[in-house]
Design brief:
Length: 95
């Protein structure tokens, strides 16, 4: 069973606690910038462990030291608590 899609109000409230994230094209979005490719790739590797445990996979794109991340729960047709939780994890891993 798919998680429940969050309302716009719920999303706005959650985003106030997750710096750098916004809603773009119906998805949570953030651009991460790292010192270099090694740091960017290390972030993706650390994130992959959490992503697999959650079984909730981002849409992400990496060029050199930049990673663009979009989070959405396709089964629910929008942003869910799973996306919020993963955004929080990604922020903590990027520190």
């Amino acid at each position: 069973m798919a998680p429940e899609k969050l309302s716009d109000e719920q999303i706005r409230k959650e985003l106030s606690d997750i710096p750098g994230w916004n809603v773009m094209n119906g998805k949570l979005h953030k651009d991460f910038v790292f010192k270099d490719f090694i740091d960017a790739f290390g972030f993706m590797s650390r994130a992959a462990i959490h992503i697999e445990k959650m079984n909730h996979h981002p849409e992400w794109f990496n060029v050199y030291n930049k990673i663009k991340v979009d989070l959405v729960t396709h089964d629910a047709g929008g942003i869910t608590q799973n996306d919020i939780n993963l955004a929080k994890i990604l922020n903590s891993l990027a520190k």
